[in-house]
Amino acid sequence: MPASMGIYIEKFEFSIKGGEKLGDIKIFILSDSLGETATLVTRAAISQFKTDNYEIKRFSYVQELNVLKEILIEASLTSNSILIYTLVDEKLIEFIKEYSKDTNLLTIDLISPLINQMSKILKLEPAREPGVIRRLDETYFERVAAIEFAVKYDDGKDPRGLIDADLVLIGVSRTSKTPLSMYLANKNIKVANIPLVVEVEPPKELFQIPAKKIIGLTNSPEKLNEIREERLKALGLSGGSNYSSLERILDELEYADRIMKRIGCPVIDVSHKAIEETSEIILFLLRKNGINFGG
User: InterPro entries, from UniProt (predicted)?
Assistant: First the structure.
């Protein structure tokens, strides 16, 4: 391999060796992304043979012609070699085809035939963007991480999570903190929520993070009374407890209002809003305050 490839190889090339004896077959894998798909298919194919005499050399993020040329040269100078590729750039693909004709290098295009057939059936042109599936996978795993975050830091379980949160929701009981946290987590936003209880001092971490990352939630006394009464019934408890009394609710709302004013955060009244509507308001406020988030 030419010296100019040194940095590239150090970062993006590795080999999988089957056993002590090498050289019977050498497989070069090229990808404009990580190359996991081609590697998996190749290993599935080689597993059908009772041999350890193979070597797989994988080259990731091949997106430039000069890089491609140098890999092709090495492959063509290597005996018993096969070059397998998953590229979407038509110029690179065409170059490989022409090169294989001129040198008799055995090459296998794993993905283009499938893309072309799908294009005919769907009557759509492919985007031909490298690494699209990787970006989709990353988005999925970011969403999973955000959901796990919301569960871990729900209802003030661990105030240390406030520092790492994209958003912190605060409010008295039954102001939709948990449903909103989960809904926003599905938009890749890491949300923690803290209940405001008259008898409990808010965690010190709440006053150590930027106010623009905090949003207060409130509700009307009548709506809270109704919701809490229904909650008690669902739990098999009798109504009329202190938890659902209007006097207690008013005290809680007054206390929460003082905390929110002390922090200086925006406050949303959720009494007549669906989760989706409140969520849109929150997203607007986050963007307005320059808070970056996924989704």
Answer: Kinase-pyrophosphorylase, PPDK_reg
- Which residue, 66, 54, 71, 53, is CA-closest to 13? 71
* 78 assigned binding-site residue: no
Assigned token pair, 30 = 């090229």
79 annotated among ligand-binding-site residues: no
DSSP 246-268: HHHHHHHHHHHHHHHHHHT--EE
Q: Which residue segments constitute the domains of the chain, with CATH numbers given?
A: 25-122 (3.40.50), 138-289 (3.40.50)
Looking up tokens 């809270």 gives 224
Instruction: Kindly give the confidence (pLDDT) of every residue in the chain, 295 residues in length, as a single tens digit, with 9 standing for 90 and above.
Output: 333 333 233 224 445 554 434 447 999 999 998 888 899 999 999 999 888 888 999 999 999 999 999 999 999 999 999 999 999 999 999 999 999 999 999 999 999 999 999 999 999 998 888 767 666 667 778 888 999 999 999 999 999 999 999 999 999 999 999 999 999 999 999 999 999 999 999 999 999 999 999 999 999 999 999 999 988 888 888 766 889 999 999 999 999 999 999 999 999 999 999 999 999 999 999 999 887 765 4
* Residue that the structure tokens 């206390």 belong to: 255
Q: Is 131 annotated as a binding-site member?
A: no
- The answer to whether 172 is annotated as binding is yes
Dump the DSSP string for 81-134: EEEEEE---HHHHHHHHHHHHHH--EEEESSHHHHHHHHHHHT------TTHHH
173 is in an annotated binding site: yes
Helix (H) or strand (E) holding 141: helix 132-152
Say whether 86 counts as a known binding-site residue. Answer: no
- The answer to whether the annotation marks 144 as part of a ligand binding site is no
Question: Is residue 174 annotated as involved in ligand binding?
Answer: yes
How far is 184 from 135, CA to CA, in rounded Å? 20
Contacts with 127 (C-beta within 8 Å, 6 or more apart), sequence order: none
